[in-house]
């Protein structure tokens, strides 16, 4: 019987266990959106597969200046950022870990103060989302976006490709394209948001076109075996209204990706960080369209994760909040040890407190 603690090869990446650290935005990058030594220490604490994760998915990382939506999130589009990330990936690899970069474009979930020259954020639509983002002065309503012209879309696709190449140069083992949580790719996928009349809007096939072009560009640049994708078919995160036929839409999207032979698909089941049963969705039917490794997330307890892998329902399980509070979550899952409590006041921004300060069991042993 396969367990959560068994090794797995996903595409071209060998993992020591099936325990994944989910992507977690922590807003601690240095000026210029550059990763720093504190971030390297945080990831290194969670990188040893014997005590931490078999695979780390990095915090969401913007592919261009326009792709940013929150204060102090890291980028992966210039050489300073690549050098900063190299410090992270070296620290992770020194502990025997594996790490992929989550490639992010927020689309309309941004604010003019975070955009080059104070310009409007771009999206599939010119209709604003209801919601807030975090900027220099604190929380603020997201800004009204500008709908991308059809002739601008190849340029955004090229930014994903460039960021993927930069990620490999920075020493990442691969990338996860962020297609979830109401950000740009989901703003194209769902007919509750996408109101375009060009070849990127209207039919299901047209709404999947942007995702497909991004995945072709990324996998074409770095190889499908180093490329994964995160989707969240029914999440309402970031004012993402439900698609009128989410099951058909996401099955169509995943089926179209088959020729790319992606390493993994990472599915957020239900409302991200909320109820798993917010809307009916047949995840097994979605999995049937995919041949790579199947990674699940959202509200997984130890018992649920053990069961998911042992039953074959999932190949990998990603843990978010539990990895924030427990650098040695892998050991704790193995030993069924109690978990540290999460301090929600230190999630976004700040320094070492609530970031690298959570104790491991070994600290108590010592
Ligand atoms: C502080 C915080 C930051 C997050 N940042 C990201 C992110 O950058 N990218 C992403 O896809 N999901 C992000 N998420 C969602 C998590 O990856 C995950 O889906 C969610 O926490 C549910 O998993 P859990 O129940 O194991 O915590 C974030 C969640 C939290 C709590």
Q: What does the model show?
A:
With about 375 residues, the chain is α/β, with parallel strands linked by helices. The protein has one domain (about 10-365): Aldolase class I (TIM Barrel, Alpha-Beta Barrel), CATH 3.20.20.70. Helices cover about 30% and strands about 15% of the residues. The chain has 11 helices and 14 strands. It has helices at about 35-45, 80-95, 155-170, 185-190, 205-220, 245-255, 285, 300-310, 320-325, 330-335, 360-365, and strands at about 10, 15, 20, 55-60, 100-105, 120-125, 130-135, 140, 145, 175-180, 225-230, 265-270, 295, 315-320. Strand 4, helix 2 and strand 5 form a beta-alpha-beta unit. Helix 3 (about 155-170) runs parallel beside helix 5 and helix 5 packs parallel to helix 6. The model has no long low-confidence stretch (mean pLDDT about 100). It binds flavin mononucleotide. Flavin mononucleotide binds near residues 24, 60, 297 and 319.
Strands, helices and their partners?
Elements: E1 8-10, E2 13-15, E3 19-21, H1 37-45, E4 55-62, H2 79-94, E5 99-104, E6 122-123, E7 132-135, E8 138-141, E9 146-147, H3 153-169, E10 174-178, H4 184-189, H5 204-222, E11 227-231, H6 246-256, E12 264-268, H7 283-287, E13 293-297, H8 302-310, E14 316-319, H9 321-325, H10 329-335, H11 361-365
Parallel strand pairs: 3-4, 3-14, 4-5, 5-10, 6-9, 10-11, 11-12, 12-13, 13-14
Antiparallel strand pairs: 1-2, 7-8
The chain binds flavin mononucleotide (FMN).
Flavin mononucleotide is lined by residues 22-25, 59-60, 102, 178, 180-181, 230, 268, 272-273, 297-300, 319-322, 347.
